[in-house]
Each structure stands twice: as structure tokens, then as C-alpha cells.
Amino acid sequence: MYSDYTTIEEADARLGRVKPILESARRLKREIETIAAGYDYDATLLEHEKPRLQAIAGRLTRKLEALEELGCYVRDLDLGIVDFLTQFENRDVFLSWKLGESRISHWHELDETFSQRQGILDLNQLALDFGFETPSMQETD
Fold first, then answer.
1. What residue numbers bound the domain in which 35 lies?
2. Would 106 be classed as within a structural domain?
3. What pLDDT, in 10s, does the model give residues 18-53?
4. CB 97 within 8 A of CB 19
5. At 111, is the secondary structure helix, strand, or coil?
6. DSSP annotation string for 14-83
């Protein structure tokens, strides 16, 4: 179904590129909706706006393709929600991010939605906040 896996670190590193593309795509979608609403969504009345709408739709398509190239699955353009495919406990899951969040901090199963996402446990932060030791991998001879 899906192919390119993204780690949390990779997804976080991409957010600087994702955010402006996502914001631009949202503006383009709103522009299309504003034009259509101005004609009460009447296809006959909108006919003379067709070249303009096609040009905007083409730019929107290119923005969405650019997000896909960055590993994003756009879930809700209006809310600015994207997912990144990753693996957790030998299964595919999505890392979930919403425009305005500073980093990737949530995940959800493939068949779940944004409202069902769960926080990602940060073992390093847990160690700082509560004095727990962070598990480490040690090689044995």
C-alpha cells in the first residue's frame, strides 16, 4: 500500500520545507473556493473563469506533488494535517503533524484518523523530567 518510510528525525527535519508548501496549497485551495463561491458554484456562470481556475488547480496539484515527494500524505488541507509513514513494533503506522505544531509528536494506526492520534513517548525527555535512565544498547563480546 505505502512504501517510503520516514523516521521521526527525518520527518522533523522536513517540516521546514513542508510548512511553506502546505500553507501555499491551502491558499490556492481557498482561492479556488472563493472564485467558485462568487458564482454560487454555478458551472455555467463559472465557465468564463475556467482558464483561471485550471491555472490555480495546476499550481495546487504541483504543491501537493511536492508534499508527496517529501513523504507527506495530506490528510486535511483545510486544517493543515499531514502524515508520514513509519514503522513501529514491526507494523506500518503514521507519524501525524498539524500546521502550527513545532515538531512531530503524535502517531496513529493506518486505519485511524487525526482525532485518534497518540503522543509519542520521548525517552530522553522522560529521563530529564523524572530522572529515569534512558535505555541504551550495549554491545556484548
1. 8-130
2. yes
3. 999 999 999 999 999 999 888 887 888 888 889 999
4. no
5. coil
6. HHHHHHHHHHHHHHHHHHHHHHHHHTTT-HHHHGGGHHHHHHHHHHHHHHHHHHHHTTEEEEETTTTEEE
* CA–CA separation, 25 and 35 (whole Å): 16
In a domain, 93, yes or no: yes
Q: What digits encode the pLDDT tens for the residues 74-96?
A: 999 999 999 999 998 888 999 99
Identify the H or E element spanning 125: helix 123-130
Q: Are 118 and 108 in contact (CB under 8 A)?
A: yes
User: What φ, ψ does residue 106 adopt, rounded to 5°?
Assistant: -140, 160
- Residue 137 belongs to some domain of the structure: no
Decide if 3 is inside a domain: no
